[in-house]
Amino acid sequence: MRKIYIIMMLLGAYLSKAQVVTPKDSSTLKKDTAKEVYKPAIPVEIDTLSYAQEYKRGVWRTTWGVRGGVSQGKYKIGEAQVIRVSSSGTPLLVDGKVVRDNLVINEDFATGFTAGFFMRFVRGSFYIQPEVNYAQKAGKFDIIASNGNLFKRVDGSFSSLDVPVLLGLRFRKTRIFFGPTANFGLKLNKNMKEAIGLYSVENLDKSFFEKPKFNIQTGIGFEFGKFLVDFRYEKSLNSYTSIKLGPSNSPQAFELFPDAFHFSIGYIH
């Protein structure tokens, strides 16, 4: 009986020892659990150029900039036969005959320029960009004498104050845009004034332009940090003038449509 009691005591002591967890094991368990629960998350980079998200927030941002560049332009004119006039406004006679010429379109390009200031109101990928530009609109046309020979090739230009309002979409560094522009013709260059003066006695500085006239501009642009590059096409919708050429008893309307390709660079704040 005494032997049985000793055996039972030893068995109980062994079982109790098997259930005890040492401090070392407990610490290791807590560390492993912490690693599982508090494992650091992989950082997620926020796309600050998400135009769709920016538009949904309804946030409008305002920027401004300046731009300038060159243009390659053409003149579309109303081709017509016109009579040269004397200083008194009567038909010019040579050997007793009225001198008649023909105004003809010349498809060659001429070089002009543009420079100005703009504001840009941006919401997401959409923007509105009003501008104020000073431009020189260049082009050419021919005057053919009644015998069929070239009498004069007019390499013309005139200054203009242009106010476009462009609507655009941005795609990262790229933009596309489209919009109307109000144009206020200012002054003819010497070649243009002398050529048209052969057929009119009006003051061309005051009466030549009808203001304002509306054109359409469309194009694509690229931005590199604070610098931009634009390629544009400008299309005339109306004649810039309706001045009458020839003598008062047989006047002929002179129509002028300047179209141009523009290349410009600029800075955006």
Q: What report would you give on this structure?
A:
The protein is an alpha+beta fold. The protein has one domain: Beta Barrel (Porin), CATH 2.40.160.20. 19% of the residues lie in helices and 52% in strands. The protein has five helices and 14 strands. It has helices at residues 2-19, 23-37, 51-56, 190-197, 204-207; strands at residues 61-77, 80-83, 93-94, 97-98, 100-105, 110-123, 126-145, 150-171, 174-188, 213-224, 227-236, 244-245, 252-253, 256-268. The strands form three sheets. It has an eight-stranded antiparallel β-barrel. A hairpin with a 2-residue loop joins strand 3 and strand 4 (97-98). The longest helix is centred in the first third of the chain and has 18 residues, at 2-19. The chain is elongated, with a radius of gyration of 40 Å. The model is unreliable at 18-24 and 42-48 (pLDDT under 50).
